[in-house]
Amino acid sequence: MTEQGLAVITVVHGRHDHLRRQERSLLRGRRPDVRVVVAMDDADVADLVPGAEVVRLGRGTRGLPLAAARNAGADAALAAGARRLVFLDVDVLVDSETLAGYAAAEPDPLAVWCGPVTYLRPEDRPYDPATLPGLHAPHPARPDPGPGAVVGEDRWELFWSLSFALDAEGWRRSGGFDPSYEGYGGEDTDFGQRLAANGMRLRWNGSARGYHQWHPVDSPPLGHREDIVRNAGIFHDRWGWWPMTGWLEQLREMGAVEVVDGRWQVCR
């Protein structure tokens, strides 16, 4: 890829400190040519990322419109002339080689590149972008090719939206994320299946490393059970299998959800 036309897209609702730290990490190494921040029901983002194009979306009728927000970010990046789109979750930091790793991959309209992501620990704070490579210890369930290596992947269920890239033509081929998913969960697993159905190829890019900032989490995410059950149902009706089964089973053990006539539903 030529040294132009690389966009970085981040979707945000709150997490302003995380966004600021992400932006600081992006100042090291290869810089994005186009920076897009999509603010979902968040009026206070504009001044956090100087020079970024800020796209504003309201809250959806059933939750935050994560899928629609990613589509809106891609639309804005393409309108600005981007030829390769890099999507970063707001919690993800990059090191000095991450964007260069995504940019260096040969143009391929059928490729989707995912970078290995390390989940940082509370004791890793405060985060120093210069020392992030020394913390590299990515999720053990996903491949971790070395720097400069790109490996193919057939298991599309491993696709995740924390850090990935694809060319503009590939984005158009994919059709984007399905905006019928609102709220928490399922939209990225669905996108992975859509990519596979459209003949795309999943690749792990060992140079495009990411580092997920620590924050408290609920496991399982009890407060999102309505979203999880609804979105899992949308996914099942389309693809014939249930996503997020780990969470669903944990929620069932808690008495929060149940299976009725072969379908998950929230207990009332």
From TrEMBL:
Ranges where the Galactosyltransferase C-terminal domain occurs: 158-203
Pathway: Cell wall biogenesis; cell wall polysaccharide biosynthesis
Family to which this protein belongs: Belongs to the glycosyltransferase 2 family.
Pfam families, per database record: Glyco_transf_7C (PF02709)
Entry GO MF terms: glycosyltransferase activity
Coiled-coil segments on the chain, per record: none
Entry protein name: Glycosyltransferase family 2 protein
Record keywords: Glycosyltransferase, Transferase
